[in-house]
């Protein structure tokens, strides 16, 4: 972990001292995600309710610039312009570097079809089955750590050879037992857990952006 990446984690703990108990797990989750992206993998994220909104939020921070502009490489920019000088110039000037991530709560056509035809609790697992590859990461967000649709997705991910990260409250749970790394924030009340989830995943996104777009520092 570079000093600039470590700084983001240290800053999180400075701002939210109660998260110091999670520091090692946040660092471990970062390493899993870094390895995934180093090997051209992707992140699949799922949760329910507020955690579904968090899943979408995470994808938004990874798939476009967060704090950095993430300018395209000159090689890719030149290729865009070589395909079409007018349209390619607009693309080259405006596209941003992305870390591939998919939130599984969306895709209403797919999920409603699957829930109607098959088993509703497996709608996340079906997408892991379709999108997931060995070396990818599944991030399951559950304040209780026992959301069945998230657990089914975690099992499907492990069977695919993916790594599983859990983001839960402080209690041990079925998700923490399955996950390779589980970040258990030190709260037990749902809304208080969710209030700590946001700075944790913001930190992870900042750490990843610092790693993969550090040349813009």
| Poorly predicted ranges | none
- In total, the number of strands is 5
* Helix coverage percent: 55-70%
Order of helix and strand elements from N to C terminus: HHEHHHEHHEHEHEH
The shape is globular
Query: Which CATH architecture of the largest domain is right?
Result: 3-Layer(aba) Sandwich
Give the rounded overall mean pLDDT. 96
Strand order of the largest sheet: 2-1-3-4-5
CATH topology of the largest domain: Rossmann fold
Report the structural category: alpha/beta
CATH C-level category of the largest domain: Alpha Beta
Task: Determine the strand fraction and express it as a percent band.
Answer: 5-15%
Number of helical stretches of at least 4 residues: 10
Number of domains: 2
* Terminal Cα span: 16 Å
Pick out its properties.
217 residues, alpha/beta, Rossmann fold, 2 domains, five-stranded parallel sheet, 10 helices, 10% strand
Short description:
This protein has 10 helices and 5 strands. It is α/β, with parallel strands linked by helices.
Structure description:
The chain has helices at 3-15, 23-38, 50-62, 74-83, 85-94, 108-117, 123-131, 148-159, 174-178, 190-212; strands at residues 43-46, 101-103, 137-141, 163-168, 181-184. The protein is an alpha/beta fold and 217 residues long. The protein has 2 domains: 3-63 and 98-216, 3-Layer(aba) Sandwich (Rossmann fold); 69-97, no CATH class. A 5-stranded parallel beta sheet has the order 2-1-3-4-5, sandwiched between helices.
């Amino acid at each position: 972990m570079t000093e600039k990446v470590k700084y983001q984690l240290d800053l999180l703990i400075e701002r939210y001292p109660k998260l110091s108990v999670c520091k090692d797990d946040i660092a471990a989750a970062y390493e899993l995600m870094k390895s995934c992206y180093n090997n051209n993998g992707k992140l699949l994220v799922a949760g329910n309710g507020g955690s579904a909104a968090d899943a979408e939020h995470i994808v938004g921070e990874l798939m476009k610039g967060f704090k950095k502009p993430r300018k395209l490489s000159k090689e890719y920019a030149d290729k865009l312009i070589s395909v079409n000088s007018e349209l390619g110039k607009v693309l080259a000037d405006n596209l941003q570097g992305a870390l591939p991530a998919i939130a599984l709560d969306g895709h209403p056509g797919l999920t409603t079809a699957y829930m109607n035809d098959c088993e509703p609790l497996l709608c996340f697992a079906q997408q892991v089955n379709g999108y997931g590859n060995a070396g990818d990461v599944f991030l399951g967000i559950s304040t209780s750590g026992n959301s069945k649709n998230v657990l089914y997705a975690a099992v499907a991910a492990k069977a695919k050879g993916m790594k599983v990260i859990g983001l839960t409250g402080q209690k041990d749970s079925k998700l923490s037992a399955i996950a390779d790394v589980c970040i258990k924030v030190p709260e037990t009340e749902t809304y208080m857990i969710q209030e700590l989830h946001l700075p944790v995943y913001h930190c992870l996104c900042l750490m990843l952006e610092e790693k993969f777009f550090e040349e813009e520092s």
